[in-house]
Amino acid sequence: MLVPPWLERLLSTSFFNICRSHGDAARSECNMFCLDCNADAFCFYCRSSKHKDHQVIQIRRSSYHDVVRVSEIQKVLDITGVQTYVINSARVLFLNERPQPKGGKAVSHLCEICGRSLLDTFRFCSLGCKGNGDGSFIIQGISASSSSNQEEEELREGSQQDIYPPTPPPPPRSRRKGIPQRAPFRS
């Protein structure tokens, strides 16, 4: 199976809007997506009432971009070749391409679709780029316990990768044009 029917809808869905049904409630942000229903995003309260026994993934935010935890998405989708990051002690990947200037001369790994610089030998920066690339998504049957154990081992081994590139050094300061002179003292 190449592309699951829900993936295109997931990538085009707008998340983090206020739920129309539960707008007054505390947890009313629409940050969940049902793989069974393949419909719009919904909130915590909609999940408990309408999607109780469905496969649901939670979308999170990182620097104003939508991410999903690797431990959730790899249960249902083959994510090999997609760059992952560690944010708040959880391994995540971005749903869609993020704007960035194209890689420079020093960058050795680039996303095959958008040209974003990658931290490792990955092929894609996001699920969206993988879908536009080779399009080979295989629905997974990985148990939750084996994927979470693997994630914990990676975190313990210190394989965390910083989500931001290193900060460039500040530009060199110009030297003073001369030695400061004091006004002469009057006697």
TrEMBL record:
Top-level taxon of the source organism: Eukaryota
A UniProt-annotated Pfam family: PLATZ
SUPFAM superfamilies membership: B-box zinc-binding domain (SSF57845)
Annotated region (Disordered), positions in chain: 145-187
Protein name: B box-type domain-containing protein
Species of the source: Salvia splendens
Species lineage: Eukaryota, Viridiplantae, Streptophyta, Embryophyta, Tracheophyta
